[in-house]
Amino acid sequence: MIEQLATAATFGFGASFGRDLYRAAKKNPIIWAIIGILMIAFGWRNLYLGFGRGPLYKFFVTYLGSAILIILGTAGFLAVGLLAMEDMGGLPLLIALGLILVSTIAGNIWGIKDRKKRVQAAQVAQHNKEFMIEVGLSDSDFDSELLQDAEGNLLKLIEYTDDKIVFSVSGKRGYRAAIKLENGRMIDYTGVVRL
User: Fold this and answer.
1) Which residues cross the membrane (predicted)?
2) Is the pTM of this model over 0.85?
3) How far apart are CA 129 and CA 115, in angstroms?
């Protein structure tokens, strides 16, 4: 499988990957089980991630796409379980139902955690927009890579770390401006200061 993944990546990660994966899965039913588990888990996860998306995207990707993944994964598992029942009794069906349940629970937990992160990131982004408006920072009319402060100084980003964003001031040698960050939130603007 690793060799097939490497080969597929070398020649383009599209149809060749799907063809190679199908060839490997034909010989190894465990790969089909993994694909089914991932389809169910991703489907349930994606149902929680509609935050901040437009209505069409939300409908087609969040709801319809997730439903398709869940239905295909579940139907595949049930089909394998029912087909295997003829040879082995009821055990394969119980295993299939158990894996569907585990995938559903895992996908829901994963989706809830990811949604919390997305909601927090959206709140931080909104706070930072409001902060920049409050302190008088705006996009420059002259250059898309520059900001303009309330006094008309043009600021160019030179450093971005976890605790600060530092700008040089265009046309003023030895001057800097900085925004202090706390957990991604902008909390203080120094204004233009001499080094």
Assistant:
1) 30-48, 60-85, 91-110
2) no
3) 21
